[in-house]
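Here is this case:
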Amino acid sequence: MTNRPFAEAATGAGRTVGAVAALVGVTVRTLHHWDAIGLVCPSERSYAGYRLYTAEDIARIHRVLVYRELGVPLNEVGALLDAPATDAAAALRKQRNQVRERVARLQQMGDALDRLIEARESGILLPAEEQVAIFGQHWQPAWAGEAREQWGDTAQWAQFAERAADRTAEQWQQIAESVEALNADLAAAYRAGTAPGSDLANALAERHRASIGVYFDCTHSMQVCLGRRHTADPGFTAFYDAIEPGLTVWLRDIIDANARANGIDPETATWT
């Protein structure tokens, strides 16, 4: 069976704007616009006065579509279609380079999305043995997965994943060293009998809040909730009391005192 559209094109029969729009996959409005700006104009008229597109006109439309697919601005397409071959080739080389740059950027975006997806699923994008090497022998790589199961639907986990996706092993090492220094300073202040609410205790409470802020934005109210969790969760209590016996409760107390100094009542603090 003969394909009627191609048969008509072969015989030079003109086509109406509606027929051409259906043939090439654009709207009638688009073809009217291209006609108005002189980009592709129908070359014939029917006996009834309708403007008709010839096979050559349709071929030009296809060339326009190719350039548009390559990202060439519409106001530059006409010059390319009508330019000498050497000029058109130079313009196309420039456009090709721009397309390749765009592809490279899209690849980078795709890689970044892959890392973000992985971070949302696993938390820290480091092999388990490297995590232990950075965070210490007490670190359990499974903790990140457990945290995702518990808080994976929260805004804080989303922030954590976004930040984790871009972090290198060296940056994680810096974070681990900062936390280790903080814990040492907390223990030293506790041993020295530093009172909650003192300038030193408040400064240490702010450092602790900043250490949480590395992972997600942490308000004073949220920090109070974390302080409660430290004393209520045997795992957290064991961790801080291994640094210095009694440190867990004192840390909660300096967090509460600092929160009061910043207008937060620890008794009514919520995760906000």
User: Anything to note?
Assistant: The radius of gyration is 33 Å. The longest helix spans residues 85-122. The mean pLDDT is 85.
